[in-house]
Amino acid sequence: MPDPIRANYEQLLLLPPNLEQWLPPDHPVRFIRDFVDMLDLQALGFRMPECRTGRPPFAPDLLLKVWLYGYFERIRSTRRLEWACYNVLPVIWLSGMSYPDHNTIWRFWDANREAMRRLLKQALEVATRNGLVGMVLHALDGTKIAARVSGRTAWHREDLLKALKDVDEAIEQIGQEIESRGEAEQAEPEYRMPEELQDARRRRQQIKEALAQIEQAQTDHLHPADGEARMMRCEGKAKFAYNAQAVVDEQSGLVVAADATDQAADSEQLTAMLEQVQQTHGETARQTVADGGYWNPQQLAEAEQKDHSVLVCAPPQVKGQGEPFHKSQFCYDGKKDVFICPRGQELVFERTKPARHNKEVRIGVYRCKSHRECSFRDQCSRDKRGRSIEKGPHHEAVVRQVEKQRCPQNAETLSKRKHIVELTFAWVKAHQGFRRWTVSGLEKVRSQWSLLCLVLNLRKLYRWWAQGELALGAAGPQR
Q: Does some domain include residue 475?
């Protein structure tokens, strides 16, 4: 009966170990190495270190490989990356048995975070070159990810105003106590302001400075450690967070555009994300779909002007399905500048008024003048002055968008949105376990989100590479 296999710590090697033999040929770490080796890091804006004396610095391509493979394997802490360089075989192989410390790893990321955002485009160029990106249907969506700061240590306008009132009352009470003691103490040459009064005034100054910062940021909640994070509805609770945006290709599942914003609403992000797609691919998809959070008449009009074909889910109050006298049933006649109701009556222009959310935008108001003789006036409107219709500056774009969604084929296309883009967010939060940013500030958050989306794309590209169906370079597969 043979003996069990045990480690032989006294085994001598006749030949030195060969790093290339440590890992199988289709290991993902080899794909990461080949992807980085094909890049021109200097042209992408990476800082190239120079050292004429002393110990040579670590090369940027080595540190970039460590970062990418770390995110590939859910290792995002710089200290854990340092640990991996000593203990994880693929990372030891990738770094060539070099051992950068966590400070070196962090300084590289901090110095090159803008350049790292350009890597997403490089991965997409590889995918496009191999015919993987379909420019037929793209889906746009956003997800809230909590900031690294806690709401418990934040500044809230309501709490600060209450604290300011309390400290003012305390200062007034201390002042009254001083006056009651008489002026004898103040006549002494070594008279000093009472310690409790000094503390109260110091506290009052700190509160006023915090309120000034909140006023400058135009918000009611602010965190001193991350002044750009905003309170948003995140995972069912109000948290300091950032809004991560992504455009995903239906054919390949690749993220073709990624960004992050400090705005809780998605309504201002439509055209900006489409422009990112166009900058990367030279065009936008034949159709881009988005949910109702992106419904914004101005954004729809801008998308039309730039020849971006979009389908944005219209809110129920805009569709008006099943309502015979809904606003969508009133047709606008541009020549006469009137609205025509379903019964053929005209609503003429009456006045303009400022928009609810933007006082600089004027809204036209049109009113029916023949409502007294109309037999359907009770069904149409309860207004004694007659039915009125409001017309915004982008009314025509809204009407065309609603008409597009009445087409059964477009409605079916719009229903595919969640199956395309929400899988990306599920991968980030569930598979990768990424539910909180590890950096502070909008620019750093944008870089981290771009890195996450890049690694998602690299995971997908790796599958094709391992099957021999992907060429990293222009000449063929880099295997």
A: no
Residue that is written with structure tokens 């008024």 in the block: 353
111 & 30 share domain: yes
Q: Which tokens belong to 378?
A: 């009770």
What average pLDDT does this structure show over 229-246? 93
pLDDT digits (tens, 9 = 90+) for 179-189: 776 554 554 54
Q: In whole angstroms, what is the distance from residue 47 CA to residue 37 CA?
A: 16
Task: Give the closest residue to 436 by CA, choosing from 448, 454, 451, 421.
Answer: 448
Residue 464 lies in a domain: no
pLDDT at 317: 78
Q: Are 282 and 263 in contact (CB under 8 A)?
A: no
Which residues make beta-bridge pairs with 349? 366
- Residue 24, domain extent: 19-117
Residues 245 and 142 in one domain: yes
Tens digit of each residue's pLDDT (9 = 90 or more) over 43-56:
999 998 887 777 88
Residue 47 and residue 181 in one domain: no
| Full DSSP string of 323-385 | -TTSGGGSEEETTTTEEE-TTS-EEEEEEEEE-SS-TTSEEEEEEES-GGG-TTHHHH---TT
Q: Domains in the chain: how many in total?
A: 4
Give Rg (Cα) of the chain. Answer: 31
Q: How far apart are CA 400 and CA 398, in angstroms?
A: 5
Give residue for tokens 């460590």: 66
Q: Is residue 262 part of a domain?
A: yes
Q: How many CB atoms lie within 10 A of CB 431?
A: 11
If we measure between CA atoms, which residue out of 39, 83, 88 comes closest to residue 61?
A: 39
Does position 477 have pLDDT exceeding 90, yes or no?
A: no
DSSP state of 164: H
Question: What pLDDT, in 10s, does the model give residues 395-417?
Answer: 999 989 998 998 899 999 999 99
For residues 301 and 415, state if they share a domain.
yes
Does 109 map to a domain? Answer: yes
